[in-house]
Amino acid sequence: MAVRLIYETHSITVDNEIGIATGWLPGELSAAGRELAAELGARRRDVDVVYASDLRRAVQTAEIAFPDGKEIRLDSRLRECDYGIYNGRPVTEVAALRRRHIDAPWPGGQSYRHVVGETAAFLEDVMKEWQGCVVLVISHSANRWALQYLLEGVPLEESVDAPFDWKPGWEYSLA
């Protein structure tokens, strides 16, 4: 049996709205983000479990989306890439440097390859525990790139430079 994995981004944050790359900082959902989180919950009622990054913005998204007792598990392996000294810097500044940090860690932080490793370990655990189930993951852009790399073979070099086109979730079958 396979695991049906659904990936959703955390909802819009105040930082997103003003162009800040939050990284490992907690972040806070904006009013629009809280509305989108409620919409996420309405469209994803069919999931067996919700996993979320333990960063505040992802936790808020999960809690607003599923206030009725759906099991929510927080997992630090689903965190955004740690930009180190660049956490909280303008998105334009961080975006211009992403390609340099695919394998080399951000100063005081981690590399995107590290995020891939964390995401791969997370997927292994999900496959062991949730066969035949639907698993929702609420996480960050670096984790989306890791999923693209691990499950679709998209090189990280392409993902980090591509514009982010939001949609209501990406679905994968983990066999």
Q: What's the short story on this structure?
A:
The protein has 175 residues and is of the alpha/beta class. The chain is 41% helix and 17% strand.
- Tally of separate helices: 7
How would a textbook summarize the main sheet?
Answer: 5 strands, mixed
Estimated helix fraction: 40-55%
Q: Strand order, main sheet: write it out.
A: 4-3-6-1-7
- From the spread of the alpha carbons, the general shape counts as globular
Q: For the terminal residues, how far apart are their CA atoms?
A: 7 Å
By helix and strand content, what is the structural category?
Answer: alpha/beta
> What's the average pLDDT?
96
Query: What is the CATH T-level topology?
Result: Rossmann fold
Are there runs of 5+ residues with pLDDT below 50, and where? Answer: none
Walk me through the structure.
The protein is built from 7 helices and 7 strands, in the order βαβαβαββααβααβ. With 175 residues, the chain is an alpha/beta fold. The protein has one domain: 3-Layer(aba) Sandwich (Rossmann fold). The strands form 2 sheets. A 5-stranded mixed sheet has the order 4-3-6-1-7. Strands 2-5 form a two-stranded antiparallel ribbon. Helix 3 links the parallel strand 3 and strand 4.
Summarize the helices and strands and which ones pair or pack:
Blueprint: E1 3-9, H1 14-18, E2 20-21, H2 31-43, E3 49-52, H3 56-65, E4 72-74, E5 89-90, H4 91-97, H5 112-129, E6 134-139, H6 141-152, H7 156-161, E7 170-174
Parallel strand pairs: 1-6, 3-4, 3-6
Antiparallel strand pairs: 1-7, 2-5
Helix pairs in contact: 2-3, 5-6
